[in-house]
Write a structure and sequence with these properties.
Elements: E1 2-11, E2 17-28, E3 31-36, E4 48-58, E5 60-66, H1 81-94, H2 99-115, E6 118-124, H3 129-142, E7 145-149, E8 151-152, H4 165-179, E9 185-187, E10 190-191, H5 199-212, E11 216-220, H6 224-233, H7 240-246, E12 255-259, H8 265-273, E13 277-280, H9 282-289, H10 295-300, E14 304-307, H11 319-336, H12 346-358, E15 375-378, H13 390-400, E16 406-411, E17 414-416
Parallel strand pairs: 1-4, 5-6, 6-7, 7-9, 8-10, 11-12, 12-13, 13-14
Antiparallel strand pairs: 1-2, 2-3, 4-15, 15-16, 16-17
Helix pairs in contact: 2-3, 4-5, 7-8, 11-12, 11-13
The structure holds guanine (GUN) and fe (iii) ion.
Guanine (GUN) is lined by residues 66, 81, 85, 89, 192-193, 219, 222, 284, 310, 313.
Amino acid sequence: MELYRGNIVYAESAEKLAEYRRAWLAVEAGRVKGIYPVLPEEYEGLPVTDFGDDVIIPAFSDLHVHAPQYPQRGLAMDTLLEDWLNRYTFPLEERYADPAFAKAVYDRFVDDLLAHGTMHAVIFGTIHVPATDYLIGRLEEKGMHALVGKVNMDINSPAGLCEDTAKSLEETEEFLARHRNNKTARPILTPRFAPTCSWELLCGLGKLAAKYETGVQTHLVESLWEAAEAVKMYPECGCDTGIYEQAGLLGHGPLLGAHFIYPQDEDIRILKKYDGFAVQCPDATINVIAGIMSSAALADAGIRLGYGSDIAGGHNLGIFGEAARSVQLSKIKTLYEPENNRPISFARAFHTATKEGGSVFGKVGSLEPGYQFDALVIGGVTDPFMELTPVQQVERFCYFGETKDIHARYLAGRKIGD
Ligand code: GUN
Ligand code: FE
């Protein structure tokens, strides 16, 4: 058993953050055993790692990120989605036909995820199998909880990324079979988005979803252009989310709909029916998508929420910053559309970034007993002029913290990064 001491913060619910000052936290076999404001007698005399006034918090979950776009972050941010994809993003993704390039980027990407305190992630690869095999293998090797997809796209795509439908399905099945028994990094179906997927491809993926009991990630009603395009291509499905339901892709595992900014009532009904996540990517929606999710209204409707960095639509890998931006965006949304929106609290944002996002993967994202001890120790955010509560330290970290303010990282109870 290991004992730690410090300030402690985690989300009990979207309404309530638990907060302890200078308490003890016990970890056994990689999981939290308990938090104790007073050291229990039986633990007296045991060695304690004392973090002083630093705060122990759960690690973050990134529910939408494109690993291959890592080299592109902060570039071409003055374009909108369609141009950004065609002129910049697709040409970069073509380079992942080269396994050496993929290995170099993916090694760095995984290290940087951990550096930013993200220990769980739902990740897009590219269409390329060797590259995506490497990525999922690397995450598994690190023991990180992840869902990783080989991307499928067979229409309206540049020649270098446009797959043959039968081959795409065949390679995807092999990818699922090869990695389905992984311990922590597992495969997920990844049709890119409606505009680049044929009906034959979607229905083929639907069959694989049922056969391998696999979930699906995609972009859902992400921009005005995409939402209109999806309904134009598949009018009989009624709405963007309906396309995936009709193709048989839903109900076989986790469902992650990135962005979910322009849903019709039907999109919301279907997402809820399958207990799917609406994944908000605040930076990406400011940079290339141009829209703001109605996060409070979706939460009221019973939809599960998560955050995504959406690298490289987003330019920051840190989910803590996305939580802060989500609070900011909820206020702007309320200003312009007061009827259906309201500002969200920091408690809700932190809950979304940790416990709710983590629930995709099992018992990660909290420090309640039984949760895997995937945790960060944050410091450097105290104030020389004001005493901050532990929750205030965490809020400040989300607004302007940096990787250097994460003083220690624990994954499944093991210290990493030293
Ligand atoms: N829609 C389709 N592909 C992408 C992508 O790579 N990034 C984002 N943000 N949206 C997309
Ligand atoms: Fe994306």
